């Protein structure tokens, strides 16, 4: 008997053999241009034992029932699982594989990059050069200035705030310690408190850090010089950054979102930037993506950097994610321990 496996995106020549070389697997791969259409997925899922999917593939009761009782595992090439209906999944006894840890450093890197880009006017000023306007925009004492992300003679103890304080947030904090951060505020991940860090361990790891404190959202907004949004998506975290939150932030503060677009109310953020409630924003994710055009209010904001969800996009990390995805799938189909299973809590 062969297990049918459906793969919604080619995982590359270094990884596909993990699936294709197995004599007990019959592998169906989407090879079309662009993301695999829903209709293709549903047509091919019938009778499948395993699905290899990406963020754009909705994994809900319809998908699972179309596949039928043969479906043992969904393996997503992402750490996030907000595209998966966890209730529908666990009710049917289907297991979920995802890709934690391996992407932590890449996403922490880009989080710091976005904070720096937003604070230092990287978008506007790069455009000036691209447009050939450097010769006419002479170096002047206060031209293109923005708030300094690292500590400075005026502000020796900058404070960083994290909404959600899991693996990626803590890796981002590690990168900020050499910038002079001594104070760290966080709110727990509202969907999964078990992911929350242990403060004592963090202080031992970073001797220059004076304080790591769990606070309510509005204290975090009020006191932070830079806020990183790093909690999972889904209904419970929807628009956690709203008008009230943004109005509470410092006028010189920067907001960075490298988790899911749904956590930030885009209309409120566009207003905050336009009216100067905050200094700038760096977004790797936006509500409604990938339907974010050049006319999107956030894309048009000069101090809002918008990247097309590339947080984990390094060669090393994506290869690791794809490998882990394939290995999760194999173990899930065979009923073995998966290298990275997301266990749905009841
Ligand atoms: C990307 O957003 C992921 O969840 O891995
Ligand atoms: C800037 O380039 C400086 O020399 O201060």
Strand and helix map with partners:
Layout (H helix, E strand, L loop, with lengths): L2 E5 L9 H4 L4 E5 L8 H8 L4 E4 L7 H7 L5 E4 L9 H6 L3 E3 L6 H16 L2 H9 L28 E5 L3 H10 L6 E5 L11 H7 L5 E4 L2 H7 L2 E4 L13 H6 L5 E4 L8 H9 L5 E4 L13 H4 L3 E3 L8 H20 L6 E2 L4
Parallel strand pairs: 1-2, 1-3, 3-4, 4-5, 6-7, 6-9, 7-8, 9-10, 10-11, 11-12
Antiparallel strand pairs: 5-13
**Which fold name is given in CATH as the topology of the largest domain?**
Rossmann fold
Question: Which percent range describes the beta-strand content?
Answer: 15-25%
- Widest beta sheet: strand line-up: 8-7-6-9-10-11-12
Which second-level CATH architecture of the largest domain applies? 3-Layer(aba) Sandwich
The CATH superfamily of the largest domain is known as: NAD(P)-binding Rossmann-like Domain
User: Could you tell me which ligands this complex binds, including any ions or cofactors?
Assistant: glyoxylic acid
Spatial gap, N to C terminus: 33 Å
Provide the helix percentage: 25-40%
Which radius of gyration do the C-alpha atoms yield?
Answer: 22 Å
Element-level helix/strand string: EHEHEHEHEHHEHEHEHEHEHEHEHE
Number of helices: 13
Overall outline: globular
Instruction: Report the structural category.
Output: alpha/beta
Q: Would you tell me the overall average pLDDT?
A: 94
Number of strands: 13
